[in-house]
C-alpha cells in the first residue's frame, strides 16, 4: 500500500440510498422531464423525481456486470428517479465520488457478482468491495490527471472512429459509382441469366452429430462481412455423400440467405479451403457463367449499395431481427453486364481499393485498441499509487 493510503470498503465512505428507490413499470410511468435511471443509465423520462442530489449509481444486475461493454458506475446530479436495478451511493465529497467511479471502472467485479444466467451485484457484496483510499488532496490530483487524460483519449478515439467511418464510406461511394456510371457495351439482365449453377441451399447436418472433429461445415460467419473466412467452421460426424450438391469449393460464390436485416444477403467468394467442406442450409451457392460474368465482378456488384438495398428490401420474415431471402428473390436481382475485359479492369481497381481500405481499417482499429490499453494502463497506475 502506498504511504498515506488506506483501504476502506464502500459502506465506510458512502451512504447507501437503495431503500429510497422506487421502480415504476413502463405502463405506470407518466412521461416528463426527469431522468429515470436503470442499471446502465437513463431508461426513460418521468413526471416526478425521488432524488435531488449528487450520487454515484452502480449497476445491480444484468450481463454488463461481467461483459463491461458500458460503464457499470456513473455519476448523476440534479433531480431524477432511480429504479431497483441500480444501487445509489452518496459521498461526502464529489472528488471521492469521482475517484470511486473511476476505480470501479478499473477492476473486474467477477468475485462480487453472483449468478451466471442473471448476474447480480447485491448490496452486501457492493459494500464489501475494498477501495484504495488516499488523502482527499491526492484523490483530487489523481482525478484531475485522469479526467484530463481521458478527455484527450475520448477526442482521439472519436477522431479514429470517424476516420474508420470515412474509409468505409469512401469505399462504398466508389463501389456505387462503378455500377451506376455505366459505359459502352454494358447490358442489363437478371442474375439467373448469368449463372451456370443457380443459387442453391447447402445442408446443415443434425445438431446431434456436432463434434470436435470430422467433416468441416461452414458457419454463417464464414461469409458475413463480405470476406470469406475459411476458419469459421464447425464439425460433423454425420454420414456424408461426396456426390451431393452441398460441397463448397474455392472460387464458389456464396450468399447468406438468412440473418439479421443488416447482414442477410452478404456475399463472399470461397478461398483457402484445404479439405472437402460443406456449406450449410442458410447459405446459397452459385456459379457465374465464365463467358458472361466474372465471379469477382458479381461479388462486388452484389455488395454495392444499390444491390444491398434490393436484397434487404426483398428479405422477408415475421421476426424483425431475422430475415430470409428466397432463391427466386436472388435470381431476379437486376445485374449489369459489361464486357469481360471491362469486368477484369474494374475488378483489378476494386481489388486494389479493397486492400487499401482494409489496411486503413486495420490501422484505425489498432489505434482504437491502443487507446483502450492506454486507458487501462493509466487506471492501473493511478490506483496503485504510481501516477
TrEMBL record:
What molecular functions are annotated in GO for this chain?
DNA binding
Q: Write down the superkingdom of origin.
A: Bacteria
- GO biological process terms on file: DNA restriction-modification system
**Keyword DNA-binding listed:** yes
Q: Name one Pfam family in it.
A: Methylase_S
What UniProt keywords apply to this chain's record, in alphabetical order? DNA-binding, Restriction system
Q: Which residues form the Type I restriction modification DNA specificity domain?
A: 4-151, 216-360
Query: Which family does this protein fall into?
Result: Belongs to the type-I restriction system S methylase family.
Official protein name in the record: Type I restriction enzyme, S subunit
The uppermost taxa in this organism's lineage are:
Bacteria, Pseudomonadati, Pseudomonadota, Betaproteobacteria, Rhodocyclales
Amino acid at each position: 500500500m502506498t504511504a498515506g493510503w488506506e483501504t476502506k470498503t464502500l459502506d465506510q465512505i458512502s451512504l447507501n440510498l437503495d431503500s429510497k428507490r422506487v421502480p415504476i413499470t413502463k405502463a405506470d410511468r407518466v412521461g416528463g422531464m426527469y431522468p429515470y435511471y436503470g442499471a446502465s443509465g437513463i431508461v426513460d423520462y418521468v413526471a416526478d423525481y425521488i432524488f435531488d442530489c449528487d450520487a454515484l449509481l452502480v449497476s445491480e444486475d444484468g450481463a454488463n456486470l461481467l461483459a463491461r461493454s458500458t460503464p457499470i458506475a456513473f455519476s448523476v446530479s440534479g433531480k431524477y428517479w432511480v429504479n431497483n436495478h441500480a444501487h445509489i451511493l452518496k459521498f461526502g465529497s464529489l472528488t471521492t465520488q469521482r475517484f470511486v467511479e473511476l476505480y470501479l471502472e478499473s477492476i473486474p467485479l467477477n468475485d462480487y457478482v453472483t449468478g451466471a444466467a442473471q448476474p447480480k451485484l447485491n448490496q452486501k457484496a457492493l459494500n464489501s468491495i475494498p477501495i484504495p483510499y488516499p488523502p482527499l488532496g491526492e484523490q483530487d490530483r489523481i482525478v484531475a490527471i485522469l479526467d484530463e487524460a481521458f478527455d484527450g483519449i475520448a477526442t482521439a478515439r472519436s477522431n479514429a472512429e470517424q476516420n474508420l467511418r470515412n474509409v468505409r464510406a469512401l469505399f462504398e461511394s466508389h463501389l456505387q459509382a462503378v455500377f451506376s456510371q455505366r459505359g459502352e457495351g454494358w447490358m442489363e439482365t437478371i442474375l439467373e441469366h448469368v449463372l451456370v449453377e443457380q443459387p442453391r441451399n447447402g445442408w446443415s447436418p443434425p445438431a446431434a452429430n456436432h463434434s470436435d472433429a470430422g467433416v468441416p461445415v461452414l458457419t454463417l460467419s464464414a461469409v458475413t462481412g463480405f470476406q470469406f473466412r475459411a476458419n469459421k467452421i464447425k464439425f460433423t460426424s454425420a454420414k456424408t455423400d461426396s456426390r451431393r450438391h452441398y460441397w463448397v469449393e474455392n472460387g464458389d460464390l456464396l450468399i447468406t440467405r438468412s440473418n439479421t436485416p443488416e447482414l442477410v444477403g452478404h456475399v463472399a467468394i470461397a478461398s483457402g479451403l484445404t479439405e472437402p467442406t460443406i456449406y450449410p442450409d442458410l447459405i446459397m451457392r452459385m456459379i457465374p457463367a465464365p463467358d458472361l460474368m466474372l465471379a469477382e465482378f458479381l461479388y462486388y456488384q452484389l455488395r454495392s449499395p444499390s444491390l444491398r438495398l434490393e436484397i434487404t428490401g426483398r428479405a422477408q420474415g415475421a421476426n424483425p431481427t431475422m430475415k430470409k431471402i428466397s432463391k427466386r428473390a436472388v435470381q431476379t436481382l437486376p445485374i449489369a453486364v459489361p464486357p469481360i475485359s471491362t469486368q477484369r479492369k474494374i475488378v483489378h481497381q476494386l481489388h486494389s481499393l479493397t486492400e487499401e481500405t482494409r489496411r486503413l481499417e486495420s490501422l484505425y482499429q489498432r489505434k482504437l485498441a491502443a487507446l483502450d490499453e492506454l486507458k487501462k494502463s493509466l487506471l492501473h497506475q493511478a490506483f496503485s499509487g504510481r501516477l
